[in-house]
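Why run this: before we spend reagent on co-expression, it is cheaper to look at a predicted model of the complex and decide which construct boundaries make sense. The entries below are exactly what would go into the expression plan.
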Amino acid sequence: LSNVSEITRSKLKEWIELEEIRSKLIQAIERKEVRLISDGVLSYVSVACNFDINDLEELSWIEVITLFSEASIANHLKIDLPFLRNSAGDEEAVWEYEGRTWYLYAHMLAKEYGWSLNEIAEMDVKDAFSLVQEIMISNQLNREWQWALSGNSIGYDSATKKSKFTPLDRPVWMRGRALKEPKKIKIPKAILPVGNVISFRDFENVIN
Amino acid sequence: MLSTRDAFDFYYMIEPYLPEENELDLFEFIGTIISNIKEDDPGVLVDILSKVTGKTNEEVLETIKPQEVLVILADFFAENKLLYMREFLKVIGNGRSK
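The model came back. Tokens follow.
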């Protein structure tokens, strides 16, 4: 333990690996798979603190979970990016494989900025994810522009007998919260006030 | 103190018998575990004592008196700080990533 200096947040590639280990650990806890729980805790600490797993097995469990907790706190991401917030419910694609998350982000960053895999691996997590979101926004806006220019975006509305523009769907995280129209309630005439109705604004004018 | 693998193995061995209440003191906590095991399968208690003391099941039956069981388990829990395990698993299990 004396070899452990202050635990700092891991860089992008290592951070993604830690998140994948944590995901598996949570699943193992839910399923009570004891061997996988021990493996998950030891792997997380090993990656986050650069410890050999065999050395960790020599430590007491309290020392290991203390390191685990410190590493978890150091790697807790305190940014609220919409694309991360809304990606959890996505269905798994058929081309998904273990460890793909790193390659997905590395591909996007390398393609956009021309950085090498080593440079991307060493990026700060906040910077990387913020840039990934910008790439996704930029790609979506480009697609929307191309869609708007194509004939497919214009349909014919038989009710109004006019052409109608259909915008390209946006991913959930890019949609604003739709404002609901206030519900109209019919009030029976019998309970409406009789005579001149003075609103609050009129009342203020009278006072002044 | 127990290593990580041994601690998790032991915890999940007794996990079905843990009391639901968190506010019990150590002896009440262990007492409830022992009662729960006795109700379900007394043989498990011998397995647990074997793990705790490093003795074989036969040695446990021959050398450990029933009145010693509570103290042996309480000492083992206290020494290995096993009451923290439930809290640790709850905190991690409640976390959701991805």
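The mean pLDDT of chain A is 87. The longest helix of chain A spans residues 125-149. Bring this page to Monday's planning discussion.
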